[in-house]
Amino acid sequence: MELRIFTEPQQGADYDTLLAVAKATEDLRFDAFFRSDHYLTMGGDGLPGPTDAWVTLAGLARETSRIKLGTLMSAGTFRLPGVLAIQVAQVDAMSGGRVEFGLGAGWFEAEHTAYGIPFPKEKIARLAEQLAVITGLWETPVGKTFDFDGEFYQLKDSPALPKPAQAKVPVLIGGMGAKRTPELAARYADEFNVPFASIEDSGAQIGRVREAVRAAGRAADSMVYSNALVVCVGKDDAEVARRAAAIGREAAELKENGLAGSPAEVVEKIGRYAEQGATRFYLQILDLGDLDHLELIAAQVAPQLG
Q1: What is the pLDDT of residues 12-38, one digit of tens each?
Q2: 48 φ, ψ to 5°?
Q3: Claim: this prediction has a pTM higher than 0.85
């Protein structure tokens, strides 16, 4: 069972804060540091302002040595696929082959309006072409060229460079779409992530993806299945309540909708998600200044998961 740290820097975090969390992630033996890809806060003033996902990960690639680095999820609306393929390949090389690439369609219209980014209607169809372009560029042998003639993107005689350090950068797709999302995952993804869903809804979505993977001619277990969930762990009820209040939430609500409570309670709930097929968990950390929280999870939750 893998535990990964997942951050939401648009809520208010500069690079130095993210670096401190990434270094703690590595020192405490978590598997990976992931971040969202957003440019606008979803509550609060968002100070000191957003950081760019791939600029951040490039810096962290040079200042860490072991942990995987990635996005949940890069917004397909933010960057042209050819440019994004170059960026991800470069960060993968800078990290020595530690990048995992999550890509989604993009959904938060207000951040597009705030920064003058077009917000197209046909997002899922664009996502399908983006995945084809990005993976196609990476898979093209050195010395060959890549062409693509889609509805939204056209590439001609691309040298398809640079290449990532990894022979294959793991691709993550996620969401709760019932048909097109599982089909895209079955075609392109190495991992499917279920974001912020109940145990029952998580199991249903994993079931749909497993069926799509089989229909695509793959073994269902060739896909990694994961959950992203907010986490709030405390040694006792008072500490849980304090950590919940620090992120503007109620402990009871977090216990219902996330991984919250004592270490034993959190381990038990992770086990219930694991029964639905998840083997990897992205722990959404919202108070990035509370590194003691990470230490508690590493000391009293992770060892119980095996």
Answers
A1: 999 999 999 999 999 999 999 999 999
A2: -90, 10
A3: yes
